[in-house]
Hints:
Elements: E1 5-13, H1 17-33, E2 38-44, H2 51-57, E3 64-68, H3 75-85, E4 88-93, H4 105-113, E5 119-123, E6 130-131, H5 136-148, E7 163-166, H6 167-171, H7 182-190, E8 194-198, E9 200-201, H8 213-230, H9 232-260, H10 266-289, E10 293-295, H11 299-324, H12 332-356, E11 357-359, H13 360-363
Parallel strand pairs: 1-2, 1-4, 2-3, 5-8, 6-9
Antiparallel strand pairs: 4-7, 5-7, 10-11
The structure holds guanosine-5'-triphosphate (GTP) and magnesium ion (MG).
Amino acid sequence: xxxxxxxxxxxxxxxxxxxxxxxxxxxxxxxxxxxxxxxxxxxxxxxxxxxxxxxxxxxxxxxxxxxxxxxxxxxxxxxxxxxxxxxxxxxxxxxxxxxxxxxxxxxxxxxxxxxxxxxxxxxxxxxxxxxxxxxxxxxxxxxxxxxxxxxxxxxxxxxxxxxxxxxxxxxxxxxxxxxxxxxxxxxxxxxxxxxxxxxxxxxxxxxxxxxxxxxxxxxxxxxxxxxxxxxxxxxxxxxxxxxxxxxxxxxxxxxxxxxxxxxxxxxxxxxxxxxxxxxxxxxxxxxxxxxxxxxxxxxxxxxxxxxxxxxxxxxxxxxxxxxxxxxxxxxxxxxxxxxxxxxxxxxxxxxxxxxxxxxxxxxxxxxxxxxxx
Length: 373
Ligand SMILES: Nc1nc2c(ncn2[C@@H]2O[C@H](COP(=O)(O)OP(=O)(O)OP(=O)(O)O)[C@@H](O)[C@H]2O)c(=O)[nH]1
Ligand SMILES: [Mg+2]
C-alpha cells in the first residue's frame, strides 16, 4: 500500500453546495500552513444542488477528488468509500458543514504520524471540548446516546463524527456500519490505540441538517449489532444453549415415537432418539449459531462424537455429585443433573466451536491492536 500523502481528508456530502467550496479551501490552507502533504476526497451521494460540480471546480492548494455515488445513500458507507480511495498515511473524516473545527486537523493527525496512537477522535466531552449554543434537549439526547454505548467503548463522545485513523487499519477492516456512526464502528471493530482530542462543535449555518428520527433508530440498531459483536462469545453460547434445549424436545418426541409407534425397546429407542436430537442440533448450529463459520472436514461426525462425550461428562459429573457430595438425598439429583448439563454444555460448545466449525474471519487476518484509551 503506497502512501502518496500524509493526510487524506474525507468529506461525505449530501447537498452541501453552500459549504463545500469554502471548506475545501480552508482545509487546504490548514494542511499547507502545517506542512502536511494532503488530498481531499469528497464522497457525494448524488446531491441535487450541484455540490459535486462545485467541489470539482473550486480553486484549491491541494489535490481534490470527487466521487459521486448514484443510487446509494448513507454517511458511514460514503466514508468507507473514502477509505478505499484514500492514498494518505492518515485518513481524517469530518462533516462538510463547518461543525467540526478544521483548525484541529493537525491535533488529530500529528499524534498518529508520531506513532503516539492509531486513531484520534474529536470529543465534545473531554476537558476543553464543548458544544456551541446547544439547547438542553440536544445535550440530553447526545449524552444519553453516548451513555448507551458505554458497554462497547470507552470513548467519552461515541457519537462524534470527527476522527483520524492510520489508513492501513481501515484499508481492509471488516466494517459494517448501520447508518451514520463510522467513528464508533471503527473504534469498536478495529480496537486501535486511541487518543481523544477536545473539540468545540458548532451547528451548521448553511444548508440543511440530514439528521432525522431514522438516524436515531439506525443508531440503536447499530448499537445492538456492536453489543452482539463485542459480546459475541456469550451471545453464541446462549444460541448454542437454546439449540440444545430444542434438542431435548426433539429427543423426547423421537423417543416416544420409537417406543409407541415403531415399538422399539426403550433402551434401543434412546440411542436412536439421541442421534435424531444430535442431528437436529448439528443442523441448527450450522445455520444459526455458527452461521458465519465454515464446517470443517467430518464436522457432522465430530459433532456426534463431541455430543456423546458431552453425555459422558454429564453422567460423570452427576455420579461424582451423587456419590461424593451427598446429593442422593430427596430431589437433589435434579440439581446434580443440571450441574452436569452445564459442564457438558460448556464442553460441547467449546469443542464444537474449535473442532467441528472454523472461524473464517480469523483466516483473513482482521487487525487487533490493544486499546490504550
Ligand atoms: N455522502 C453522504 N453524506 C451525507 C449523507 N447524509 C449526510 N451527509 C453528510 O454528512 C455530514 C453530516 O451531516 P449533517 O446533516 O450535518 O448531520 P449532523 O451534523 O449530524 O447534524 P447537524 O448537527 O444538524 O448538522 C455532512 O457533511 C453531510 O453533507 C449521505 O447520505 N451521504
Ligand atoms: Mg452537521
